[in-house]
UniProtKB/TrEMBL annotation:
Protein name per its UniProtKB record: Outer membrane receptor protein involved in Fe transport
Family: Belongs to the TonB-dependent receptor family.
Species this chain originates from: Sphingomonas prati
UniProt xrefs under PROSITE patterns: TONB_DEPENDENT_REC_2, TONB_DEPENDENT_REC_3
Alphabetized UniProt keyword annotations: Cell outer membrane, Membrane, Receptor, Signal, TonB box, Transmembrane, Transmembrane beta strand, Transport
GO CC aspect terms: cell outer membrane
Domain spans labelled TonB-dependent receptor-like beta-barrel: 452-975
Motif (TonB C-terminal box): 995-1012
Region of interest (Disordered), residue spans: 37-77
Pfam short name (any one): Plug
InterPro entries the UniProt entry points to: Beta-barrel_TonB, Beta-barrel_TonB_sf, Plug_dom, Plug_dom_sf, TonB-dep_rcpt-like, TonB_rcpt_CS
Signal peptide: 1-34
Ranges for domain TonB-dependent receptor plug: 93-206
Membrane topology annotation: Multi-pass membrane protein
């Protein structure tokens, strides 16, 4: 949406929020028809999720039991654990599972539950509204998706009530923003491989959202929020109603929610971030271009200045190099940093030719700070469920989920153009410079500009999802043995639209800047361009182009992408205890599943090329300046056409065998599962797991271990990717010469095979010992080896490997094309790489009832993850393995902790939360040195500084029960307004890592909740 639309929407949202807040207050004195959930935690609230045993009578309120009561009409003694398909009383699965209960979700007071779950230490590299804002073509702006163990969102299976959800992007990952969040009563996070139980994608683990399918009454939540800078204003309105009819056999639930988040940014050119944030310093890894002179190749510096362009134009080559233009179009001598002096050859002395930067000087035209820090996000969610108990222990149900999520962000300001050829005869050029051309004996020169007089681009996404599920679940008796069953059919459709506004058609821009005087009027020099409507543009200074010129260069019908994703799933599962053995019953689960995934994506003709399937072709008239066959005419947002589908047939069997059960040696079991899967694209593959638990005779001590073979099939975008084109405006050319603008062309590969992982975990648990029943501790070691990883080398790697002599990489790029837009690098995914990561998780908690004689309870919890290693091997001869553990430029810091302390009683609640991750570096591949450096290579480049501070955040919140049904709450996040550490790039990007660091600053939230 436009800025004006965002303001109007936000105003309406705040008015609605205020009205519902007043409504909630007025209802406070109304008679209750359902008892409010008590604020006092259950007896085992302080026990870590991976260690607790379910109490079927206790409400799930905090970081809660890893085994919880079954849903629906099943027996209260049965338990459902996401890490397994076994449904059995007293069963302890060997796979660690963290459970976030309703109380923890409420205390975080987030407008999107995604933000609460993503704080868990085991979740590393998740994406949300604060990530990907610098990108135009990715299509993932505002997409909320989880990544476990740093393995990526595509290797984390996200479920809703144990069922798959249609993807919100061609990668197949769902958008958590589309879930019915008010009805979620807990979230299970399985931190281990679960492919044998749930199928493809569960390599890193499973995140399962469990809704309250038997909710009765009415509840509502109204809250708002704003940063200390006065931006990212948020308004959330949620309501849900549930009722039981026909003697408690018919259960009806409906919910709706509206969330409006304004987002943050963008800033201005230079180092001015949005709303006065002052932490941006244009930090960059400057490439000296030297690899064997005893000095480091890369130097870390703040306030890096690109010397190929300026805010309103800079002559960057030839005898006039160094002449810039101010806002009024007057020429002046550009102020290079580093005491630089132009050489007339494109280089600048004392600066860094490897990526065309100086340090300091005139930073006014650098575009890095001009990207949004957070996308605006607007959610509208509707959910309904009807269930009917057609027998004493069986239910038929239908659910409908309809959702719309809209986002908007600015990827960068203006139009960064470092390599334009300008004629000295251009009538817009000041006479002084034309005279200098004549004196120097030249007729043209190279020119670069940020084009700050152009409107700033805007990327807008609109994702709409329609999901329908019909199912049967319950229990039946066979020969005196109870069996549970769960069968469902799901059909999901996502319609995703991406529209990019105010983006430049590059060849039209070039034609519009090449002006001449004809019959006393300034016109475009190219006669064919004039005939097609070309309007000249003055690029020397800050004069705003005419409306006709802007309409020609940045037409209203900009880049667009229209995507349709469809998912159909049919699943039937059974679980029972057919045989009573020496130490307990043999538990069995088995089932089958069919799944079909389909996608179709269409781009506009100017981006995709003219085809008979391009949408709105009539809105993009033919133009002799544009490439009608290949497309890729936009400066960014060149979306392509593509389609693909695959079918999956699966069957699984899981067994739990009790080994012994006695007071002398304790209680132990072995749990195993196998799943066979046939993919229409890549054939048949097996997944399996085997593990066990041992409740030792030592007070409160349990051991557990599991090893598994897990798989991830290539997704639709990897198999059938519509070729995408990304513009890299300042690409380093190691063969010599200045940095150039290139197109990175990405295509799919239908020959891809499934990735195969080996996941091993082992742990020890101390759970509520008799000598200190409020204490629980757990320690779990994990080791994951992933082979055949679908990966793509970066454009920089491909070119550099060729430069270093590996001829296999020399046929897929062009860096010296004389044709406008002719420079490119082709990239494609292959099953090349292998990953290995290992580390351990720690959980601890202590619950203290009536501390110091006070009513209520005090609870301390801490969860930590240590990433010991995260080794990435590219699978290419000559390419070294890189350990990404501790590289805070990525997603896997060495340590990550989450700790909470809370005091709760019947009147109020106070909670404090700490989030911390350890110091790290830019990358473990670097060799740090200042003098006497070894030769710098692509595998081990030399650098003068390689440290990156971690972060420590404190959040404080509390609530007050105004009545038994209504409570008010407040929360302050990042209390000390901790700034993010610089994450230097080798280009002009926003030098921060929002996947780890808080980039918004202190945040205030407040609201009112009601439940009747």
């Amino acid at each position: 949406m436009t800025t004006e639309q965002g303001i109007r929407t936000s105003t309406v949202a705040w008015r609605v929020a205020g009205s519902l807040a007043a409504l909630a207050a007025s209802l406070a004195s109304a008679p209750a028809f359902a008892q409010a959930t008590p604020v006092t935690p259950p007896a085992d609230a302080g026990v870590p999720a991976s260690t607790r045993t379910a109490d079927p009578a206790a409400p799930d309120q905090s970081i809660a039991p890893r085994t919880t009561p079954a849903e629906g009409p099943q027996d209260a003694g049965s338990i459902v654990v996401t890490g397994t398909r076994i449904t059995s009383s007293g069963f302890a699965a060997p796979t660690p599972t963290t459970v976030i209960g309703e109380d923890a979700i409420l205390k975080n007071a987030q407008p999107n539950i995604f933000n609460t779950i993503a704080q868990l230490p085991s979740l590393q590299g998740s994406t949300g509204a604060s990530t990907g804002t610098f990108s135009t073509s990715s299509g993932t702006q505002g997409l909320s998706s989880f990544s476990l163990r740093g393995l990526g969102a595509i290797r984390t299976l996200t479920l809703l009530d144990g069922q798959r959800v249609v993807g919100a992007n061609v990668t197949g990952v769902p958008d958590i923003s589309m879930f019915p969040q008010l009805l979620i009563k807990r979230v299970d996070v399985v931190t281990g491989g679960a492919s044998a139980s749930y199928g493809s994608d569960a390599v890193g683990g499973v995140v399962n959202f469990i809704t309250d399918t038997r909710f009765k009454g009415f509840k509502a939540n109204v809250q708002g929020g704003v940063t200390r800078y006065g931006d990212d204003k948020q308004a959330l309105v949620q309501a849900a109603y549930g009722a039981s009819l026909l003697d408690d056999r018919l259960h009806v639930i409906v919910s709706g929610e509206y969330d409006d988040e304004d987002g943050v940014g963008p800033g201005d050119y230079g180092t001015d971030l949005a709303k006065g944030r002052n932490w941006y310093r244009a930090s960059t890894l400057l490439n000296t271009g030297q690899t064997n002179n005893g000095l480091p190749q890369f130097n870390y510096r703040d306030f890096a200045q690109p010397y190929q362009y300026a805010k309103y134009g800079l002559i960057n080559n030839g005898p006039l190099q160094g002449i810039a233009f101010d806002q009024n179009g007057a020429p002046y001598q550009f102020n290079y940093g580093s005491n630089g002096r132009p050489t007339g050859t494109g280089a600048v002395t004392n600066c860094f030719p490897g990526n065309s930067f100086c340090v300091g000087g005139d930073l006014s035209g650098a575009p890095g700070s001009g990207a949004s820090l957070k996308s605006s996000l607007e959610r509208l969610i509707g959910f309904g469920r009807i269930g009917y108990d057609f027998a004493e222990s069986s239910e038929a149900y239908v659910t409908v989920n309809v959702a719309q999520v809209k986002t908007s962000n600015q990827p960068s300001p203006g139009y960064n153009r470092p390599n334009l050829t300008v004629q000295c005869a251009n009538p817009y050029l000041p006479q002084l410079v034309r005279d200098r051309c004549a004196t120097a004996g030249i007729t043209q020169f190279n020119f670069g500009s940020s084009n700050a007089n152009f409107p700033n681009p805007l990327v807008q996404t609109d994702r709409r999802q329609y999901r329908f599920v019909a199912g049967l679940k319950g229990k039946f008796d066979v020969g005196g043995t109870d069996w549970t069953y769960d069968g469902y059919y799901e059909h999901g459709v996502t319609k995703a639209a991406i529209d990019v506004e105010r983006t430049v058609l590059q060849n039209r821009y070039v034609a519009a800047t090449n002006a001449i005087t004809l019959n006393g009027a300034i016109v475009c020099a190219d006669a064919a361009a004039r005939a097609a409507g070309c309007q000249p543009i003055n690029i020397f200074g800050g004069a705003t182009p005419s409306a006709a010129a802007l309409a020609y260069v940045t037409p209203a019908n900009g880049p667009l992408q229209r995507t349709t994703l469809k998912q159909d799933v049919a699943s039937l599962n059974f679980s029972g205890e057919p045989v009573e053995l020496w130490a307990g019953p043999l538990s069995v689960a088995f089932g089958a599943e069919y799944r079909r995934e389909y996608y179709r994506v269409r781009g506009d003709p100017y981006g995709a090329g003219v085809t008979d399937v391009s949408p709105n072709s009539e809105a993009y008239p033919a133009d002799p300046l544009l490439n009608s066959t290949l497309g890729s005419n936009w400066a960014a947002g060149n979306y392509k056409n593509g389609t693909g589908k695959y079918d999956v047939y699966e069957g699984f069997l899981e067994l739990n065998l009790p080994l012994f059960d006695s007071e002398a040696i304790g209680k132990a079991n072995v749990n195993g599962a196998a799943r066979v899967t046939r993919y229409s694209t890549s054939g048949t593959i097996w997944a399996w797991k085997i593990g066990g638990t041992w409740e030792t005779p030592l007070d409160g001590i349990r051991l557990r271990a599991v090893t598994s073979r897990d798989v991830r099939a290539p997704n639709l975008s990897e198999l059938f990717a519509a070729p995408t084109v990304t513009t890299l405006p300042s690409f380093t050319n190691p063969f010599g010469g200045p940095a150039v603008q290139i197109f990175q062309n990405t295509v799919g590969n239908t020959d891809l095979k499934p990735e195969i992982a080996r996941n091993t975990e082992a742990g020890i648990v101390l759970s509520r010992p008799s000598w200190l029943p409020g204490l629980s501790l757990s320690f779990d070691y994990y080791n994951i080896k992933l082979n055949g990883v679908v990966s793509t080398l970066s454009a920089d790697q491909i070119v550099r490997f060729c430069f270093e002599g590996n001829q296999a990489f020399c046929g897929g790029f062009e860096l010296n094309s004389p044709t406008q837009g002719g420079n490119f690098v082709n990239v494609q995914p292959f099953n090349l790489a292998s990953w290995k990561t290992s580390g351990f998780d720690i959980e601890a908690s202590y619950a203290w009832k009536q501390p110091l004689g006070l009513p209520g309870s005090f609870t301390i919890r801490a969860l930590g993850t240590h990433v010991r290693e995260f080794k990435v091997a590219a699978g290419i001869a000559g390419v070294a393995t890189v350990d990404q553990a501790g590289a805070n430029n990525g997603a896997t810091p060495n340590w990550k902790w989450l700790a909470t302390q809370s005091y709760d009683n019947d009147l109020f609640s106070i909670n404090v939360q700490q989030r911390w991750f350890s110091d790290g570096n830019f990358g473990n591949q670097y060799v740090v040195c200042t003098t006497g450096c070894p030769a710098s290579t692509a595998n081990n480049p030399t650098i003068d500084y390689n440290k990156m501070k971690g972060a420590f955040y404190v959040d404080v919140g509390g609530s007050v029960n105004l009545t038994k049904q209504v409570s008010a709450f407040v929360r302050v996040e990042n209390v000390f307004d901790h700034d993010p550490a610089a994450a230097p790039q080798t280009n002009t990007g926003l030098d921060v890592n929002p996947a780890l660091y808080d980039t918004l600053g202190r945040f205030y939230r407040a609201g009112v909740r009601a439940r009747f």
